[in-house]
Amino acid sequence: MFQTAPEISLGEAVSDSHLAAYRFMLRARLLDDKFAALYRAGKIHGGVFLGRGQEALSASLGLALNKTDVFAPLIRDAAGRLAFGESILDAVRTYMGSSLGPMRGRDGNVHRGRPKDGYLPMISHLGAMISVVNGILIARRFKKITGTVGAACLGDGATSTGAFHEAMNQAAVEKLPLVMVVADNQYAYSTPTASQFACADLADKGIGYGIATHSVDATDLTACLKIVGGAVTQARNGGGPQLIIAKLLRLCGHGEHDDAHYIVPELKNSTLGRDCLKVAEETILRQNWVDAAQLAVWRSNIIQEIEEAVAQVQREPAPDPFTEEWRAIASEHLSETHNA
Amino acid sequence: MFQTAPEISLGEAVSDSHLAAYRFMLRARLLDDKFAALYRAGKIHGGVFLGRGQEALSASLGLALNKTDVFAPLIRDAAGRLAFGESILDAVRTYMGSSLGPMRGRDGNVHRGRPKDGYLPMISHLGAMISVVNGILIARRFKKITGTVGAACLGDGATSTGAFHEAMNQAAVEKLPLVMVVADNQYAYSTPTASQFACADLADKGIGYGIATHSVDATDLTACLKIVGGAVTQARNGGGPQLIIAKLLRLCGHGEHDDAHYIVPELKNSTLGRDCLKVAEETILRQNWVDAAQLAVWRSNIIQEIEEAVAQVQREPAPDPFTEEWRAIASEHLSETHNA
Amino acid sequence: MSNITYLEAIREAQAHALRDDPRVFIYGQDVGAFGGAFKATKNLAKEFPGRVMDSPISEDAMVGMAVGAAIEGMRPIIEMQFADFSTVGFNQIVNQAATLFWRTNVSCPITVRLPFGGTSGGGPFHSQCLEAIYAHYPGLIVLTPATVEDAYSMLLEAVAIDDPVVFCEHKFLYYHLKADKLPSEALPIGKARIAREGRDLTIVTYSAMVHEALAAAVELSADGWEVEIVDLRSIKPLDTDTVMASVARTGKLLCVGEAWPWGGVTAEIIARVSCEGYGLLDAAPQRLNAKDTPVPYHPNLWAAHRPTARSIAAAARNLLNQ
Amino acid sequence: MSNITYLEAIREAQAHALRDDPRVFIYGQDVGAFGGAFKATKNLAKEFPGRVMDSPISEDAMVGMAVGAAIEGMRPIIEMQFADFSTVGFNQIVNQAATLFWRTNVSCPITVRLPFGGTSGGGPFHSQCLEAIYAHYPGLIVLTPATVEDAYSMLLEAVAIDDPVVFCEHKFLYYHLKADKLPSEALPIGKARIAREGRDLTIVTYSAMVHEALAAAVELSADGWEVEIVDLRSIKPLDTDTVMASVARTGKLLCVGEAWPWGGVTAEIIARVSCEGYGLLDAAPQRLNAKDTPVPYHPNLWAAHRPTARSIAAAARNLLNQ
Ligand SMILES: Cc1ncc(C[n+]2csc(CCOP(=O)(O)OP(=O)(O)O)c2C)c(N)n1
Ligand SMILES: Cc1ncc(C[n+]2csc(CCOP(=O)(O)OP(=O)(O)O)c2C)c(N)n1
Ligand SMILES: [Mg+2]
Ligand SMILES: [Mg+2]
What we know:
The complex is a heterotetramer, with 2 copies of chain A and 2 copies of chain C.
Chain A: H1 12-40, H2 55-64, E1 70-72, H3 78-84, H4 88-96, H5 130-142, E2 150-155, H6 162-173, E3 178-184, E4 187-188, E5 191-192, H7 206-209, E6 212-217, H8 221-236, E7 242-247, H9 265-268, H10 276-286, H11 292-315
Parallel strand pairs in A: 1-2, 2-3, 3-7, 6-7
Antiparallel strand pairs in A: 4-5
Helix pairs in contact in A: 1-2, 1-3, 1-10, 1-11, 2-3, 2-8, 4-11
Chain C: E1 4-5, H1 6-20, E2 24-28, H2 44-47, E3 52-54, H3 59-71, E4 75-79, H4 90-104, E5 111-116, H5 131-136, E6 141-143, H6 148-160, E7 165-170, H7 173-176, E8 178-179, E9 193-196, E10 201-205, H8 208-221, E11 227-231, E12 234-236, H9 240-250, E13 253-256, H10 265-276, E14 286-288, H11 299-305, H12 309-320
Parallel strand pairs in C: 2-3, 2-4, 4-5, 5-7, 6-7, 10-11, 10-13, 13-14
Antiparallel strand pairs in C: 1-8, 6-12, 9-11
Helix pairs in contact in C: 1-6, 3-4, 8-12, 9-10
The complex binds thiamine diphosphate (2 copies) and magnesium ion (MG) (2 copies).
One thiamine diphosphate sits between chains B (75-76, 124-126, 155-158, 161, 183, 185, 187-189, 250, 254) and C (29, 57, 59, 81, 85, 88).
């Protein structure tokens, strides 16, 4: 069922995209690590959610998208967000609640985006973003914009939501260029997949929607680049919606408050439990695309970039409730004026 | 894809169940006809919804169920309701809003049932009854009651609801003896299936839930008895949830207010467009199980029964708003006492 | 066109919007060739090919889709087949559409049409009045036109507004109300209307209940009482000023709503007047709502469940005689 | 057990219910071996094998399942991971559970636990107060315990009640509140509690705001003002009598709620007092609610969004000085 990476010698284009993806994976991992550290230090309110183990999948998706595409990432998509074009500053500002960030302290952590850039800020309700992506794609069809795709991300658990079902069906009926990426990371919070669904494989759901379906071993960056890239291309070329089921293991707690003690050792020790970042690194070194020294330089540069961003944001103003505009609607003339 | 009726000579048991089902189909058809007439005469408020063309499927289901089973019919299941044990009086009382009916004039038309008899009164929101059936089945598991099944009915259109998806998945995860009967009657109100879903066949959805799936030509009573009966038996014997996709054509408007002009002639003229009641009748006569005279007697007896029920209900008291207990909760001591 | 119904006004407003604004499209169950369960989109699919789209029975995805289209610059109109079914598209309305502007500074100009309110035989799931539910959430505009003219002009304005609008169109008024012609000018949204002038008592109400109140006022005028009737038109925002000014004139307030009693429009109006216009009242304000049960099917029960001209007149008399 | 938190009280009530009543079971995301997102079901799966069930992420089916189980004689407790997510199970709560008894005379004893209300960093989708939404619908009981003792006894009573109960447990109180022991007796549901006696002003509130109001009262008592605080405990039904009796004593009314301002508990209380106890008031009633926007993420914004001891004291002072 898994698409395994071709063990043939890889051409230049492959090394390029592998390295590009790797660098976004690394950025995401290091950024996540920083958020985890800030959380432990009590510097972040609410939760922190990491994409550890999901970077290969997410970065491959972000890279496969053009800047004019639509992207609705979920909680574990730091890599995809960066690859799609999010700045580290936007991420840090949102987690720290800076008034200069895209969410201006009104929303936080993984709930960030810039809708006008095709980058959608998730609401928490799982499955709810997919039909929103459909809507953008339908609007583009009205506007006769062709060649763009919309990608939505989800976890294994969220396939149980009615919202997922309705949106998948909607995309299929309207033949939209939706790429639906399901990270089957074996758990939804503490709930194992056996308590979440009863099909042999989530990929079995595709046929019921009449949607082309792809499976991929998400611990393997090479496979992700190929499968995700291929699905995006298919959608872009008029192939209609694409469902990608990616297998991996969540290599962290649900959030940083969770020690994930419930993850069974059998899974940790299986190939699913491999760290995609390590696997990607090993491929790079084995293929001699760059050497270990270069990897270390990348790593330290990214760390510096992140530290600078955090330092900058920590100096930035927090939102001020007195100057805050407490208005939930755009039409100023229609706001309620009474006091309650 | 269709299960076609075996054209071999049929044994006695087959003729028995065929005749029993036929009689419920006929009752349902004649009862529906009466409601349509009352509607045209302005004697029924709100809508009237017929099961014309769906009687073979529905009766087969009602007959396959025991009185201790659970049944959640939908709008086109007059035949199944009668076969499950509903009296004509309950049906007429509900349509006429009699205070003596099971819904006491509080709810009407197809929204009728007796929950304590395992016969669930649908709410209008499509898909919403399935998880309720699941709940009864889970309760029985708690109570160590075995050997009962729960059947829920739905249309092709309602497969697009999130509620359907969540409940199907729930039944699969909990391995409940749910029999999910989808009447794919080619339209949801005016919407043809092509605008409703994009899978080649609704039966393709089963595998995505990990649920055993059956297809049946619902214009053919013999096939319905076999397939529906078989699925119910499988569920009863521990085979887990069963999905039945039944193909037919709605031989009426969505409701009696609707002339169904949008139904395309190709469908009307196809085998799907056959009237299952006629088909069943032809089989009976061809097989010589009873003769035409007997069929006529049955018909006139049923008509008399229906007329008597209507006449009786018309003499019954309408609900009286002054003696009505306007209280939505069971706990009398917790009702609001102020006036607003 | 003459003798235009409330329903036709809604159709005309949509035709007008489709004609004038290429960003407008309509999405809902059976709204296409069929013209909608109530025929509110009759012929529009033919007149505006591709822009009136049938949806699957997926209220959640219908609203989510509209939000996405709005982000991309469109002005979608979503038709719920009945207001009651919006409960399954609820999350997308109150958490997706209603929060978008506040969270991202990107506006969300969608219109969700809710055919709502009681009709004879409608029963518990085809009769509900959900305006208070939507008005409680920040980020939504909630409209309840009571006249043919308002049905037309407010729907046009709803589509033009940059915010998500829950447009509550009353099914009972669909065929009952008629007007000679459609208006070219109208009160803006956010302004209430004095539906009848009077000096003795203010009745604040909206939607179908405006007409019950007007009938009650006619009855009361036979006894010499002159009742002023405020038609709120918009539930959120509420035009507190117009209400207050009327109460200042009459000194007495009766609020009437077809919705359930706990915490709806009538409670909100009374709270506002009591808090902000306490001195204006000569007597305790009163309210009249539906009973606190699901809406019954049988016409006898239904007639007793919701306020009517008769029960309004009785409540008004009670207040007037204080 | 000593130093029992509000959260532990909820766990204990469930343990008690499971122990005493074989009809009780718990269903929700991660409630099993994991013990729930907030640990409100910690160890219960082990203690009561098979009776604490993990559900898929399917709020609609979770509630629907509970209704079915209740019809068959069980007493299910459904845990929503956050109140905010009940919007996707909304239809089953308000249209299936809430209508069952009225339609069929078959009761629907389910308890839906909603961990609700604001906490620092919770943001727009993990902070909502939805009590008014549920209370508007007929057929539901809506509870909002403010103390450890009430969390325990009211949850026990909720499970015993024959009707669907929306049990709003405040996340902010989970760890903040402690009690020495669990109560063996309690006020019945439907009765409000005088949380503090006073003669100068009545503050009517509920849930977490009771504690903000108590803190405000302490502050005001330094100036010689004696504020009476009514903890509603139950939002539906509302104990109008206790509220009215208190207002009769103090003559002044301030209603405080953490929910959004349009039409919530505070509007309903003020409407009731104004309509039925008009003569009791010496001054215009006042209310204080959250702002009419989604709940903000940043602690600074959040602190200004909801009422606090400080803003309550300011509003109270305003009224007291009239
Ligand atoms: C509708 C809804 N219900 C519940 C939640 C609470 N919740 C947040 S994340 C989560 C688990 C998600 O699991 P999965 O979809 O597998 O994604 P993963 O965390 O594994 O990436 C849950 C239950 C939610 N956000 N939305
Ligand atoms: C959630 C929901 N949305 C919309 C409706 C309105 N509605 C009632 S029946 C119907 C069509 C149903 O079609 P289908 O499921 O195919 O059943 P059929 O009528 O063909 O038997 C619609 C849209 C509803 N009852 N529930
Ligand atoms: Mg997962
Ligand atoms: Mg159909």
